[in-house]
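tl;dr need the bound structure. longer version: we got a ligand (adenosine-5'-triphosphate) that a collaborator sent over and nobodys looked at where it sits. i said id run it. heres the input, straight from their email, havent touched it
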Amino acid sequence: MTRTPYAGPAVELRHAVKTYGEGPSAVTALDDVSIAFPAGSFTAVMGPSGSGKSSLLNCAAGLDRPTSGSVVVDGVELTSLDDRSLTRLRRNRLGFVFQAFNLLPTLTVRQNVLLPQELGGRRTRAGAVDQLLERLGLAERADHYPSELSGGQQQRVAIARALLTEPAVIFADEPTGALDTTAAGEVLALLRESASRQTVVMVTHDPVAAAYADRVVFFADGRIADVVDTPGPEAIATRLTQLGARPAPHSTMTGATR
Ligand SMILES: Nc1ncnc2c1ncn2[C@@H]1O[C@H](COP(=O)(O)OP(=O)(O)OP(=O)(O)O)[C@@H](O)[C@H]1O
């Protein structure tokens, strides 16, 4: 079946509200949030701890459902999908990269990259994994195990795994949180490069990491406090401090930016 390309934003939240709990102890993590992530863009989401970044990511990626409002991903209204269809859309159209690389230690690099496809019972085009590993500088590592790789290499394997299905959107949650400055720079450059084909939405506490994005969305108290196009790390750090965030413990502010 051919799919008509969808011309709208890759991800859009409309009046999204996310409330945890009920009554007086209820917490509003997303307070009427409307935002669109254009196709092919790279957006960093920042804000103080508890400001709603993970809630945004989880709702935008269909890992959680908003209490009210709507989420449209790649032209599909997520709130209208049952759990099975949502899982299928996540598998086929979305990629995920987390701080913990989430690789299986008993599988090689190649097997780790292929695992989601195989679990989903799908075939992979011959040569697709090798091409991807080549592109990500991992060609020599295809038959190695995660314990034989550096942190940066492991995260690149996780990115290869996320890219294999050529998803519409990559959601990254603190992808450089466990990496040193050099490895973080390599991973961020890869995400940047991917953003020409995929849309990337990345939650980070690190102003240097955020400076790789096309724009930074700042959250405070469950609302969007600011959206800034291509700010530098210093401007990002200043805005974060104004919003009440403490400096990130693992910030790579001392390292080079793009
Ligand atoms: N499952 C949950 N149950 C109850 N409250 C929750 C739950 N998840 C998040 N919250 C609350 O919702 C608010 C927003 O949380 P969220 O995790 O989205 O923030 P965050 O910006 O990602 O924070 P951090 O930077 O610390 O990860 C916080 O007050 C948090 O305590």
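gonna send this back to them w/ a short note. The mean pLDDT is 91.
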